[in-house]
Amino acid sequence: MDPYIEGNPVAPWPVSDLAPDLIAVTHGHYDHLGDAGAIAKNRGSLVIAIPEVARYLNERGAQAEGMDIGGSFRVRDVVIRMTQAVHSAGITREDTVLCGGCPAGFVVDDKIRVYHAGDTALFSDMRLIGDLYRPDVALLPIGDRYTMGPREAAIATSWIRPQVVIPMHYNTWPTIKQDPSEFRYIVETLCDTEVIIMDAGETIEL
Ligand code: NI
Fold first, then answer.
1. Distances from the Cα of 198 to the Cα of 139, 147, 170, angstroms
2. Model confidence over 18-65: pLDDT tens digits?
């Protein structure tokens, strides 16, 4: 998801370490589209994204497939569904901004179900995502300013009701500085979901 490595002040590994089969891009902002095109070109990965972002990548020599909100994409036994996100989505290129279609999130169904919300505000249909897909794990932005803050993300958690929630999209820059323990505290007052706070580069097995 959203491999933003080059220029990312907290990315712990070089982009050359990555060779995924599939890259899912939530939207065209540079800190999400990131190195997807370069990795896809150099390592033969397939990218899935909203059609405007997929076309942008195809025109630059990367293999990308378009999909849209509400639809699913199957790779072997893994089903990935694209969900709505409330955010902006332009593709910034040097001195211009290209149309990036709509922002999105993904629900990945691979034995366990993981909902990656992308960059988003809190929206009430997160309840529907919880009811329809019953994600085991949710990854929710808490950085504020460009997305939900800790309080809104905690409310989202109580609506989605995953077993585990992992906060993301914070402490990359001063503008999205957050204390994730504040998020954990609010979640614990609202529901039984376990909050797992991860460091950049850390791996967990679920
Ligand atoms: Ni964004």
1. 11, 19, 11
2. 899 999 999 999 999 999 999 999 999 999 999 999 999 999 999 999
Domain with 163 in it = 111-198
Tokens of 66: 């378009």
Distance of CA 89 to the CA centre of its chain: 13
Contact 5, 14 (CB under 8 A): yes
* Residues, the chain: 206
C-alpha span between 62 and 64 (Å, rounded): 6
Residue 156 and residue 140 in contact, taking contact as beta carbons nearer than 8 Å: yes
Q: Does any domain span residue 149? A: yes
Beta strands, E only, the chain: 22-24, 46-49, 64-66, 72-75, 78-84, 91-93, 96-98, 104-110, 112-116, 137-141, 164-168, 194-195
Ion ligand 1, residues whose Cβ is below 5 A away: 29, 119
CATH code where residue 151 lies? 3.60.15.10
pLDDT more than 90, % of the chain: 94
Distance 162 CA to ligand 1 centre (A): 23
Q: State the distance from the centre of ligand 1 to the C-alpha of 190, rounded, in angstroms.
A: 27
Q: Which of 65, 84, 104 lies at the terminal end of a domain, its last residue? A: 104
Record the pTM. Answer: 0.97
28 lies in some domain: yes
